[in-house]
Amino acid sequence: MPKRSPSVIVVSHGHSDHFSLKVLKAYPDVPKIMSRATHEIIDPNKKLRNIVYVEHGETIEVAGIEFSAYNAGHIIGSLQFSFNFDGKDFVFTGDFNLEKRLILKPAQILKGDVLIVDATYGSPRYVFPKRSDLYREIVAVAKRFFEEGSPIIFKGRRIGTAQELVALMNASVDVLPLVEEVVARHNSVYEMHGEWLGMYAYWNGQPPDMPLPIIAGLNSRSGGKIPKCICTGWVKGKLAFPLSSHADYDQIFRYIKESNASLVIPFCGFRKELADAVSRELGIEISYADKTRI
C-alpha cells in the first residue's frame, strides 16, 4: 500500500499482476483511469468508485495532468499512456505487443523523454518465432491429433493467449472448438468490445466424443489424459509453443530504440539484463531500481 494517497491511479489492463483490488478499494475518492474493457474484467460487479474511462486516441485531464491513451496490443482494453509532468514527456507502455496478430491491433511506438517500459521478456533468451510460423505449427499439431482420432487441449493465459487460440482454431480447422468456462467469460468481453473470435461451444471438462480442439486456461486441471499443448512465452516441454500476448526481447529493444527517450525505466521481468543491453548497445540512460528519482 502506498505511504501517501496518490492523486490519480492508472490501470493499464486487466491482468491481475497489474492491479490490486485491495489498493483500488482503499482509495475510493482517487480517480482511477482505465478503459471500459479493463473495468469489465477487473470489476464486473461495478463496485469500484471514481472510475474515469478513456479509450484509444482519447485525451483526458485528471488531477491537473493530461493523459493520452493509446492501444497497447496486449489484451482487450490494454492501453499505453503518455503525459507531461514537470516539463518532461512521459510514456508508460504497460504490457504491449507490436506484432500483427489474428486479434487486436498492434501497439504503436510512442515517443517521449522518459519511457517506463515493460520488461517481462527483457532477456535475449526470449526472442519468439514469427507469428505466422507459430500459427502454422500449432495448427499442424491440432490436425495431427485429429487424424489420430484424438482431441487436444491448447492451454494459454485465460485473458489474452486463450482468445487468440480460439480465433486461430476458428480460422484454421473445420471443427468447432470447445472452450473452458473461465476462458469463455473473458471471450464475451472481447466480443462486447468488437473482437469477433468465431464460433465455439462450452467445454464441460470431460473428454469429447470426437477429435476437437479444446481451449483452456494455463492453470486448468481439467481434461485428464487428453493431450495438452502449452502456449506461453515461458515454454517448457516438447508439446509447447512460445505464443504470448507480450512483446518479446526484440520488440522491447525496438521500442526503446525508436522512442527517442533519454531515460528508460523498465518494470517487471528481466530489468537488469535489459538495462545492461540498452546501456551497452544504445548508450541510453536506464534505471532498473525499484525507486527512481527523476
UniProtKB/TrEMBL annotation:
Keyword NAD included in the entry's annotation: no
InterPro entries associated with the record: MBL, Metallo-B-lactamas, RibonucZ/Hydroxyglut_hydro
Please list the GO terms describing molecular function: exonuclease activity; RNA endonuclease activity
Question: Gene3D superfamilies under this entry?
Answer: Ribonuclease Z/Hydroxyacylglutathione hydrolase-like (3.60.15.10)
Keyword Nuclease on entry:
yes
Keywords annotated in UniProt: Exonuclease, Hydrolase, Nuclease
Query: What protein does this entry describe?
Result: mRNA 3-end processing exonuclease
What is the species listed in this Swiss-Prot or TrEMBL entry?
A: Thermofilum adornatum 1505
Q: Which PANTHER family does this one have?
A: CLEAVAGE AND POLYADENYLATION SPECIFICITY FACTOR FAMILY MEMBER, INTEGRATOR COMPLEX SUBUNIT 11
Q: Which residues form the Metallo-beta-lactamase domain?
A: 6-126
